[in-house]
Predict the structure.
Amino acid sequence: MQNSSPLSPFDRDGENVDHATFEQVLEMDDDEEDREFSRGIVFGFFEQAGNTFAGMDKALKAKDLAELSSLGHFLKGSSATLGLSKVKDSCEKIQHFGAHKDVNGNSSNESEDYFLDRIRQTLEQVRREYSVAEGVLRRFYDGAGQ
């Protein structure tokens, strides 16, 4: 039940972080006070996401759709592990667009510029979604060890 989640005070409806998925990560902690294990995973993800976004910016500037697809796939997987559903979904779109596919993963004959524009728009969206989810998780960990 969503209301009994340790994340509820920070993300009441599970809109930004899927509580059930994130609770599976929390179950790996030996100590619920400091949550050292899950904290390491989450803060490692923050660093990884920052590097991935920088790589996406570079690939976008170079118009490298294949690299954008690869980076979208990479960030999709790691965000899914933590339950960042909106981030995962947007990264999946980037993965598809970089592979010359539509939003649903179907092959498309649109131009490279079309896909680059879609990725540019989706990258702006995923950054906003990531920022909100990151804030939820940082507030959770700021309160967890206090």
